[in-house]
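Troubleshooting: if your tokenizer reports a length mismatch, compare your output against this known-good record of 316 residues.
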Amino acid sequence: MTCGLEGVPEAIDIDLPGLEGDATVEIVQSNLHAMQAIYFSSVLEELRLFQVADKLVELFNSGELPFRNTKGGRLIVDYWRRSTERPTEPERLSTYARCFGFTNGEPTESTNREFAELWLRFLSAVSAFDRQTEVDGLLTSETQVSQETVRSSGRKLAANLSVYGSGVVPFATALREQISDICEILRNDDVMRVYGARDMWQIVDQVTSLELGGPRPTLRYRTMANAGATIIGWLANHANEQTAVGELIDKTSARRNIKSTAPMAEPNDRNLVDACLQWLAVTGTPNDRVEQHAQPVEAREEAPPDHEPPIQNADP
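Known-good structure output:
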């Protein structure tokens, strides 16, 4: 009696499917760079940067800004003339909802409902890994975070951003150009002179206070915008490493206080760590929540997903 295995080759090639939920998702670098710009824009939306620009146009057209044939005047006129070429506020809010699940836009079936949870997991894992490295692996808490934990959370976040970033590259390009135009207006000497401002953020503070219902926490939103864009930029630049084997974060370089001079375009590991710590700090994320989300998913009880967008309810 035989087992029916006669003649079967000793080695059989079996193509087993990956069991990781996002293992087959291609991380498209250009999609992540587009999402980087849209995230940056979404936080500036909370800061009312776009509304400030619209208010300056309104004040200029009504003659309340005392300059005409100057560079500042020409910048405002050019911005106004191109208004029909730019995304409208409802279009921006709808895109933020689709890309990140932010509730200031109208949610739809295509809304990204996983981003908030994946975002917090990755930032918490990087933060905990940094603390762990700083004390040579001897944490006072029970959380022990490995490179694989950081890689897994980063891969899932990058895959999510890549999927929802599909098709938004032109929109992101338009937002980049609009933000650049607004910053050029706000940094113009003619505009700053009218408001007695030393930098563009003092103009934003004054216009929001006097014309738009009250001031916004400018430093908080600026920190969130820069930190968030740095984090997504790092994920984009390390897209190929998310599925590799070995160290994802260089512990030695991350510990050195050597930072990239272009943190959003070319963030290094130190920039990533600092951005995660800054974002968690400025949003007031409790340490116990960071500890909880830093643990591998399998090692902690899953709470109902927190779909509150990171930039909502951020006012003190």
